Write the structure tokens for this entry.
Amino acid sequence: MNIYESARRSAAELAYPKQSIQIFESLNGRVLDVFQEIEAWDGWRLMHDPATPRETILAVIREIYRSVCWYQPHTTEAAFHMIGRLPKAEVRLMQALAAHKAEEAEHGLWAREDMAKLGENDLAVSSPATFAVSAVWWRIAFHEEPLGYLGAEYLYEQLTAIATRETLPLIEARDLPESELRFVIEHATEDAKHATFLKHHILDIVTRYPGSEIAMQRCLDYFRCVWPLPVWKEAVDRATESVR
Ligand SMILES: [Fe+2]
Ligand SMILES: [Fe+2]
């Protein structure tokens, strides 16, 4: 049984206090709010408009991959710093979160491979919004309460799970090439599992550490200020410029 299966079983088997479930639902509601903002955004509508050329859609995805390559190594390294600052008796929590983040470490490479298949390799200079993502994660890592990590990571996983799942019908409808979209397709299933894994840990931690949700909410909110919309807006700007 891997760490995601055991988390799912535990979440189903354990009865968390009602208050903990409400706290989790409030965090989850913040993520759903972010996805509503995305659905209302011109760039999301552009991607899903049947009149948008396939070339433009693929250029946007390629530029989102480039963004991932710019920030993801830094958020990974910052996360390990946050995990290292967790309460030192939390051995199993550290092991589980470190195992999850270690698996995530190579996902920037998936983005890089897919970007190369779409004809791009240049990662010379980070964009402003992706630089800001790295900065926010390191600021959280150095200065926030370490349990706050779970809030930022939940936004990361749950939002990616929703956005990639909602992109699968577009891939089929526009007959987009699956070999260039491994990052998107695999995240639709992987991040649903990761979001469930984090849900279990959030429920567990807010139950055992009353008040820890305040730092989780703060870290989620810091992160949503810089991701994903500011990053994706830049990606659409670069993409539309490149196909003009
Ligand atoms: Fe990932
Ligand atoms: Fe993930």
